[in-house]
Structure formats: C-alpha cells, structure tokens
Amino acid sequence: MEQHYKGVYSDLNGGMTHLAQIIKDAWVFGLLPEDQDGAGWTGGQIQQLYDKVSVEWEKYGHLPSRLTPELRERHQRIHEEAVKRARKGGWNPELGEDD
C-alpha cells in the first residue's frame, strides 16, 4: 500500500522535517501556494516537487543569502513562522545526546 504524506502542519515536530522543508521551499519559490501543505501526496509527487525545488535552489547556489530580496524575505517569513509553530507544539531545536 502506498504511503501518503500527512502534510506540513501534521508532520513530526511541527513540520521541521526534510519532507516539510521541500514543501516550504516550494512556497518560497512560488511552486506551490502556501495553503497547500502536501497532505495526501504520494512519494512520487513529493519527489517531483523536490526536483523542481532543487532546480530553483541551484540558481542561488543553495544559499538563502543569494536569494533576491523578495525571495529572501519570503524565505525568512516562512521559516520564522514554521519555527514559531513548531516551538508552540513542543519542538526543541537543541540536539540531544542521541541525535
């Protein structure tokens, strides 16, 4: 049975996972509207989105500091909102001894 992604807002640690980052980066680049969190997507759909996101990041050397001012602002806003959401849900960015 094929697994489906639960979506950024239902993901582990408030969406601070690799899969959630793909969705959030797609929001940054306008590849996906911000109200679409990937809920119900298959692995194949996530992979296709990852490929598109990677192409966009390549234009900027995969560095947020190289983004255009507009994209940098959007990246910062989306990331800050995600961190606030995750912390509110109990996420702690500190690594434990087992991490």
Question: What features would you describe in this structure?
Answer:
- The chain is mainly α.
- It is built from three helices and no strands.
- The protein has helices at residues 18-28, 43-58, 69-88.
- The chain is globular, with a radius of gyration of 14 Å.
- The mean pLDDT is 92.
Rg, alpha carbons: 14 Å
**What's the story with the biggest beta sheet?**
none
Percent in helix = 40-55%
Order of helices and strands: HHH
Approximately how much beta-strand content do the residues carry? under 5%
Low-confidence stretches at least 5 residues in length (pLDDT < 50)? none
Q: Which word captures the global form? A: globular
Q: Which structural class do the helices and strands define? A: mainly alpha
Secondary structure: number of strands: 0
Task: Give average pLDDT, whole number.
Answer: 92
Task: Figure out the total of helices.
Answer: 3
Quick summary:
The chain is mostly helical. 47% of the residues lie in helices and 0% in strands.
Which tags fit this structure?
99 residues, 3 helices, globular, mainly alpha
Explain the layout of strands and helices.
Layout: H1 18-28, H2 43-58, H3 69-88
Helix pairs in contact: 1-2, 1-3
